[in-house]
Amino acid sequence: MPSRITSFNRELIFYIFRSSGWIGFLYFIGLIFALPLEILTIILNDNSEYMNFVNLFSSQQMIQFVLVITIPVLLAIFLFRFLHVKQASDFLHSLPITRRSIYFHMIGMGIVFIILPILLTGSVLGIFHSALDVEKLYNLADIGSWMGITFLMEGVIFSVAVLIGMVTGLSSLQGLLTYITLGLPAGLFILLIANARFLLKGFYSEYYLNAKMNSISPLLAATEMEKLPFFSFQILIYAIVVCLFLWLSLILYERRKLEHVSQAFVFPMIKPIFKYGLTTCMMLFAGFYFSQSTGKMEWVLVGYVVGSMIGYYLGDLVLQKTWRIKVSLRGYAIFAVAVITVVIILKLDPVSFESKVPDKNMINHIYIGNYSPLYDGDDETEKESSFLKEKENISAIRLLHQQILEKGKMESLEETNPENSVFLIYELENGRRLAREYHLKNYEAYLPLLAKIYESSEYKHMVNELLNVPVEEVYKLKIDAMGELDKSVTIADRKQSLEAVQALSEDLNNQTLAQMTQYWGEYAYIEILLENNKTIYMNWNSSYPAFTNWMEKTGQADEARLTVDDISHILVAKSDLKLSNLTQEEIEVEIEKQPVQMRIDGPVEIDSVIENSRINYGDGDYVAVIYYKDSRDFEIRSFSSPHVPSFISDYFK
Do 169 and 86 contact (CB within 8 A), yes or no? Predict the structure, then answer.
């Protein structure tokens, strides 16, 4: 009888099962522990843990995450290990089976080892659902969603691991490169964004770094599988990626030369991609590291050079598999020229990134502030409450932006001062956003325009939650003195609560730019409790005259804040120490050891210290230790220009 090559080879199936079947069994055991046994424990505990069970993905979430990211990689390594071991490669490829058939056997068994444990676990969960009262935990739709998303996430990781296995001749390198490849999109994105601010004036790196990156990295997506809707565009993309990568893997396998066993890369074209990719990543990482540790552009450039040289050397080391390598200076020179060319192109700004100011007819909303918002702007409620829409403010912000571009200078590396920063996010009519970040050295030149914006009613309503709350919703205020004092006042009377809120609202509406951006004379913390169980937190400062007068009129001021009668004396010294790294006790010791210090005992001077000092003692020109009369406690405060009392500045002259 003539021999023929069949599409289904029983012996090959048995061979695969013997070499890799244990991984599928291990996966099934892990899923049993993560889901059915955990759910059974919850039920036997009389539902006491229902509140901690969100969905099937939250059941032993860490175990599920580890299984999802390790099982597919292990399967890919052991299924295609024959490509990395000469004896196994010679044996399998000597059989009367085509490479295509071998590939489909391996992939088919890999899918079986992944999907069979998922199906069995899903079946157990289905039995639990029909036999036990678990409706509060999950339903049949949840089981289907869990099975589908889990299989697809593992399919993506499996396909990447298989593709990497086709281009390398080392199993260890296959595993390492798989995780690097899975995390590379997010990692490279972060490095590029973090370094772009060195080259482009106004580049708002934090805005882009706060963007959702889970969709571009399967490893990150695996940490939040519970948030993935089964019928979504992201799931469709993942399915396409699986099919594409498995198809590419087949093409590479059929073209792979068998004699390249144990080589780092079996295709010559992959070697320069790996070497220069590693060089680029190391260059960007070193530049970012030096920028964070030194804040000097010269050191960032040093980081680029050192990082690129290390990356280039490591690339050759991996490719040649020896410490004794001969580095090609010609290759490094080509890389350096390419980098310099890219930098020159970016500095020429062919797309007008640095000079672009949107036309006022294209603008829908604008965010402006001296701090970076922590949201990505997708939430409609946040958008409505945090963006300015009035035409006068939009025109003023555009004018400010134009002036910054004409004469502004950005401190791209030095530690930024929030009081000298401007963050802009334009929400355009077409739904797109334009974000910019500026840290201005000549901040005072823009104060008139900034005051016009920040002192507008719309902006004050944007940044002060109290101004957007009807006074009728307030039912209680609690005021606690700042510092180490145990003094507090609770205002529960309905009439007094309304009067207090009205006084606070008046102060907020009348604040100047200086009062909004600089804090001094800090008296107490205010908690405003609303009818809907929400709480508004504020500080009571000496820049709130209406509220201060109301508190004094009702006789409650001295019961809720630091007063002259609470203080024994005050020691003041110049703030030439790195106080932010010291505890209050260490600061007191350092001030007492200062050769020049000022002791303040007079009530008028003490009151002036209270009115002009601030709790933040790490960035003032002078630092003060306030000693209490009736206790051993003390408080550290500081003074910043122009709020240093004249008698203190005169003394230290």
Answer: no
